[in-house]
Each structure stands twice: as C-alpha cells, then as structure tokens.
Amino acid sequence: MSTVLELMEKRKKAWETAKAFLDSRRGSDGLISAEDNATYERMEADVVALGKEIERLQRQAAIDAVRVG
C-alpha cells in the first residue's frame, strides 16, 4: 500500500505544479498560448495517468483481500 501512498503524493504534487503553471501563464485576457496549453495538457494527462494507476492498485488490493480472506 505504500506504493499507492507514494503515487498519491506524486499525483498531488503534479496537480499543484500544473495549476501553478496554468495560473502563471494566463494573460490579461485570461487565456494561455497554444504552446502553454499543450504543456498544461501534458501535465494534466500525467495527473490523470497517476490517478488511473492508483485506482488500479487499489482494485488489485481489494481483490487480493477478498481472495485471501
């Protein structure tokens, strides 16, 4: 389960970094450049991927617990 906790912390940090990046790149019109948008989308995709891996590991742990118990 420590792997899940480590991934959760990594996801939290990645999300905070992505939000800070987005906030720092907004222009006076509230928009970001196409290049910054592409960077943010990659950052967001990493956060989503980490979330999916966390869910996968949690499901595995739940199945193992039922199978063993």
Q: What do you see in this structure?
A:
The chain has 69 residues and is mainly α. The protein has one domain. Helix content is 86%, strand content 0%. The chain has 2 helices and no strands. It has helices at 2-25, 34-68. The longest helix is centred in the last third of the chain and has 35 residues, at 34-68. The relative contact order is 0.15. The mean pLDDT is 94.
Shape: elongated
End-to-end distance: 17 Å
* Count of discrete domains: 1
- Calculate the mean pLDDT score and round it: 94
Please state the structural category.
mainly alpha
Number of strands: 0
Task: Tally the helices.
Answer: 2
Written as H for each helix and E for each strand, in order along the chain, the element string is HH
The low-confidence runs, each spanning 5 or more residues with pLDDT under 50, are none
Helix content: over 70%
Gyration radius from CA atoms, angstroms? 17 Å
In a nutshell, what does this entry contain?
The chain is mostly helical and 69 residues long. It has helices at residues 2-25, 34-68. It has one domain (2-68).
Which helices and strands occur, and which strands form pairs?
Elements: H1 2-25, H2 34-68
Helix pairs in contact: 1-2
Q: What descriptors fit this protein?
A:
single chain; 69 residues; mainly alpha; 86% helix; elongated
